[in-house]
Write a structure and sequence with these properties.
- With 423 residues, the protein is α/β, with parallel strands linked by helices.
- Helices cover 30% and strands 22% of the residues.
- Helix 3 packs parallel to helix 5.
- The chain is globular.
- 46% of the residues are buried.
Length: 423
């Protein structure tokens, strides 16, 4: 049995949460493999919008097992808030959610360090979500971080205080005053551990291997997007983990021979939250129109997203490094009121045309556009591919011809029912 991988092909916010929720019925296990509460996976059904940050998006299906993998970083406070919201809906997440013992914990001081580091950057801020993600992964790489398994250690308090004191020393060096903030954060953090301890802590790599040997189907759920990958994004305007398909194997503890489909989610246009290169960004009324109709505000931060036309240079790059087998095209319904639609098909860098993304994040990139007709028709009520307007089908075919990847699923609205399967 193979493991299918679902991830974003842009800068995040592509609609992964909804797609995982829709596809969950086809799988036995949903496993998050990286990221943390900097992710915001939105799902909508029965007219109600739900946002998950740490918990896998298959949690609403009671009969499916959900696993938080070792590559994820967990803030116990946010985890508790998510669990409380699920319980209020009548769910019993302790029945179908397990957590890797090797997943790292976000401490209160990690969030303070995040704020202190961002403040130090001044005008060079990268647009951190200030959730403590970067400092937590920093401690992980430095081999000093705290993990879920430490909650089972009789020396937990000693380990916690030792790392807490190290963080306070760094904050002192950065002249960041935490005296009023830390006591309350620390109290709330320790109280939230009670909720975390209600869940099964597992050796997820063994569990997932056993599931696959039993012919169980597994979907690996990524967070953020390919263009924010630590290695292959526009460094340093990236996240602190590997968001690409390869990250699923280190983030879950499986070897690559288990690779099945790689399902890439892409919006019919582009958005980005935070600083960093965005060649097709629109600063005019068209960009504002996309933001307004698409409700483009961060699910985690609430910040307005930067909006622009679809970038096929970046998309082809994402497809290449992930080995994408299937594209899911989302939010095409947002573009139903445009006379024409531009698509970036090449870059001009230093006067030369190229189909490669520059390695340097400060390179001056001019997008080269192909203009296509808009479909000027509400597609949100369409239930089958045949019902879609021909102009929109032509848009899909153009994407397929350019990327050499098939568009297998089309999302025409936020609700789980607003999904068209082509293959």
């Amino acid at each position: 049995m193979k493991i299918d991988i679902l991830l974003g092909l842009q800068w995040g916010d592509e609609g992964k949460g909804k797609v995982v929720d829709v596809l969950t019925s086809k799988y036995d296990v949903i496993a998050r493999f990286q990221g943390g509460p900097n992710a915001g996976h939105s799902l909508e059904f029965n007219g109600i919008r739900h946002v998950l940050h740490i918990i896998p998006s298959g949690i609403f299906h009671k009969e499916k097992m959900n696993i938080i993998g070792n590559g994820v970083v967990i803030d116990p406070i946010i985890f508790e808030e998510e669990i409380d919201a699920l319980v209020k809906m009548g769910l019993t997440p302790t029945d179908n959610l397990c957590i890797s013992k090797k997943a790292h914990l976000i401490m209160p001081t990690h969030k303070l360090l995040d704020a202190a580091y961002e403040a130090q950057k001044g005008n060079n801020k990268i647009g951190s979500t200030l959730k403590g993600i970067g400092p937590t992964y920093t401690d992980k790489i430095a081999r000093v971080g705290m993990r879920i398994c430490d909650l089972l250690s009789p020396n937990f308090e000693e380990k916690y205080q030792h790392l807490l004191n190290e963080h306070k020393a760094i904050l002192d060096q950065l002249h960041f005053d935490y005296s009023m903030l830390l006591p309350e954060l620390d109290k709330k953090w320790k109280a939230s551990l009670a909720t975390l301890r209600k869940f099964a802590f597992i050796d997820s790599e063994y569990e997932l291997y056993d599931y696959l040997q039993q012919e169980k189907t597994v979907l690996a759920e990524g967070a953020q997007g390919t263009l924010l990958d630590l290695e292959f994004g526009a460094y340093p305007f990236v996240t602190s983990s590997n968001t690409i398909a390869a990250g699923a194997f280190t983030g879950l503890g499986l070897d690559p021979h288990f690779a099945g489909k790689v399902i890439g989610i892409v919006k019919a246009y582009c958005t980005r939250v935070g600083a960093g290169p965005f060649p097709t960004e629109l600063f005019d009324a068209t960009g504002e129109k996309l933001r307004t109709i698409g409700n483009e505000f961060g699910a985690t931060t609430g910040r307005p997203r930067r909006c622009g036309w679809l970038d096929l240079v970046a998309l082809k790059y994402a497809i290449m490094i992930n080995g994408v087998t299937d594209i899911v095209l989302t939010k095409a319904d947002v573009m139903s009121d445009f006379d024409t639609i531009d698509v970036c098909t090449a870059y001009r860098v230093d006067g030369e045309l190229t189909n490669h993304i520059p390695s340097a994040s400060d390179a001056v990139v001019e997008p080269v556009y192909t203009t296509l007709p808009g479909w000027k028709e509400d597609i949100s009520k369409c239930k089958t591919y045949e019902e879609l307007p021909q102009v929109f089908k032509d848009y899909i075919r153009f994407i397929e011809e350019e990327t050499k990847a098939k568009v297998s699923i089309v999302s025409v609205g936020p609700d789980r029912d607003a999904t068209i399967f082509r293959y």
